[in-house]
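Anyone else keep sequences and structure tokens together like this?

Example one:
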Amino acid sequence: MMTLKGDNIYIRALEPNDLEFIYAIENDESIWSVSNTQTPYSRFLVKQYLENAHQDIYEAKQLRLAICQDEDFPAVGLIDLFDFDPRNNRAGVGIVIHEKSSRGQNIGSEALSLLIEYSFYHLNLHQLYANIDIKNVASIALFIKFGFEYIGTKKDWILTNGSYSDENMYQLINKQF
């Protein structure tokens, strides 16, 4: 699908061979606080998830896509639409570039750009939002770069290692609808 292909990356539907990559992400405790994960996932559960990943966004209320740099290499990250609300034409956005060595290379920017375009022009969404820990300055900068505006702070929202932190909410309105 050309809609989801950029200059240096493309985003695609999940494939069965993404099992180990998703398993690694879901069990990486260093990112649990940003993914609202609290327990490890088994390969069996990830395999079941992948078997049902074919569901339409209108049925599943979410869409998870793999971020890839080259067809011969595995995914480097995931980008999600979650809490999809077709009545109000909105969804949340989440993104993770798993390996630290792949961060800071414009991969996240290009993936977010593709997802915004897909969301607004193919899904006809009116708005996207992102919930970001106030300490995650890289994610805040990424979303602001694409016009997401700060709309509020949820106090003591995220508990990590026995300490609470605030979470900011950012929103992007599709002005064409």
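And example two:
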Amino acid sequence: MDEHGGDPVENELHILLTEEDAEAERVAELTGCLREELLDLDVDDVTRLPGGEPPPGARAVDVTQIGALLVTLGSSATALNQVANVIRSWMGRRHDTRPSLRLQMGEDVLEVSEATDDQVAEALEIFVARHSPAGAEP
């Protein structure tokens, strides 16, 4: 019996972006902007999770599907740290609305909403440290 069967893959980071009272189109736009920045990193892939584009004018759409990204980190030991830096920078530029982010890697979940830039930085640092290989530079 494979003891790893069913375990979430450790090099996959799920990101869920939400914004209170936001239109579906706005969440889709924010998610797209974050995805573009993440694609510039040394990661294998950044894909939007199924859910598709919301129908025009739809308000009852499942926003949790619109803002969902899957980052495949690959074998780079620094990939997660790079992703955290981009997320911190990206969140820092969103002072007008302050979207909420939920990061999940394996069973570990980090939720960031209405936090100061320093709080976001500290939370991301701890999250990265928990998933860094022993001896790797944070």
